[in-house]
């Protein structure tokens, strides 16, 4: 259960992303600076942590070993994850983005056949291609049903364009984040700790953020002081604390696709934290009784998902589906 609790802690700090990004957009800040400043600001904090732990040299050795993979999967896991989320914040409120983001629960489950997991058999530990857990997928659908109920009333107030531009980018991000994270776990094979891996992926994706910053400087002008401060808060809370916690939780269940999906499912709590944050920070109205019902379904689905992740499963290697 420890990875689950760590995942919930990560969800709390990740929720700052949705609230503060929406706050920056409402204050007139550009999504370009919201995205790029987060990762630029993350580097000094992570660099100090890794240097103090005397792990920077090992990180450089690891990155040189397979630099192309680092660049590709960091671009996917960080670039195609966060830039679309910030873009969506320009068109939709934080609660809708946080709710749509929970599709990543199913996205992660659907990605399982692309990876191998470790299984203990009579003749030792072997690698078996991951399968789609039907039980876990069922619990994920309960979570998503709760989220859909939560958003039902508010979504009626949004235009079709806002829904399209606020939802499609988040769907892209929902696949990019677990894909990039899992691929980097494959590349590292447990040789790096979460601080090293987050710093490495941030450095590998830095060319993207510098180019995006240059584009923002030309098109939008420099960021305001208020946006810079809020981007710094996002960098510390979501970029450093939440990402390190989440990577630590996923590292603890590396090699078990079912438990990995359960850890990823803890991120469903983000929608609750984001809703609370919007109420207190952005003075959003309190949710209705129907929305509270949706929240309960989210919590029940996550608890069941976590429970099932600790039960043995039978795997059919021919179909790639676990029961």
From TrEMBL:
Keywords: Membrane, Transmembrane, Transmembrane helix
Signal peptide: none
One of the Pfam families matching this protein, by short name: EmrE
Residues spanning the membrane: 31-52, 67-90, 96-116, 136-152, 158-177, 198-218, 230-249, 261-283, 289-308
Annotated protein name in UniProt: Multidrug resistance efflux transporter family protein
């Amino acid at each position: 259960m420890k990875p689950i609790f760590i995942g919930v802690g990560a969800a709390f700090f990740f929720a700052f992303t949705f609230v503060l990004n929406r706050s920056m957009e409402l204050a007139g800040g550009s999504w370009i600076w919201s995205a790029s400043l987060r990762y630029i600001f993350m580097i000094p904090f992570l660099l100090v942590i890794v240097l103090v732990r005397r792990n920077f040299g090992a990180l450089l050795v690891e990155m040189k070993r397979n630099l192309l993979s680092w660049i590709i999967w960091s671009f996917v896991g960080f670039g195609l994850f966060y830039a679309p989320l910030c873009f969506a914040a320009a068109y939709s409120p934080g609660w809708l983005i946080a709710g749509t983001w929970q599709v990543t629960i199913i996205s992660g489950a659907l990605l399982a056949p692309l990876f191998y997991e470790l299984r203990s058999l009579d003749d030792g530990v072997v690698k078996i291609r991951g399968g789609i857990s039907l039980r876990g997928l069922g619990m994920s659908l309960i979570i998503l049903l709760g989220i859909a109920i939560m958003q039902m009333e508010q979504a009626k107030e949004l235009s079709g364009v806002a829904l399209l531009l606020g939802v499609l980018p988040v769907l892209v991000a929902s696949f990019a984040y677990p894909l990039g994270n899992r691929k980097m776990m494959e590349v590292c094979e447990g040789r790096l700790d979460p601080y090293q891996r987050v710093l490495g992926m941030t450095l590998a994706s830095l060319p993207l953020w510098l180019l995006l910053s240059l584009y923002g400087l030309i098109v939008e002008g420099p960021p305001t002081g208020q946006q810079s401060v809020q981007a710094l808060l996002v960098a510390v809370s979501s970029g450093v604390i939440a990402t390190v916690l989440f990577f630590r939780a996923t590292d603890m269940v590396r090699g078990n696709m079912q438990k990995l999906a359960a850890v990823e499912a803890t991120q469903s709590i983000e929608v609750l934290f984001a809703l609370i944050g919007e109420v207190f920070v952005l003075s959003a109205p309190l949710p209705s009784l129907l929305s509270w019902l949706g929240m309960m379904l989210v919590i029940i689905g996550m608890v069941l998902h976590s429970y099932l992740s600790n039960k043995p499963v039978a795997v059919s290697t021919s179909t790639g589906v676990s029961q």
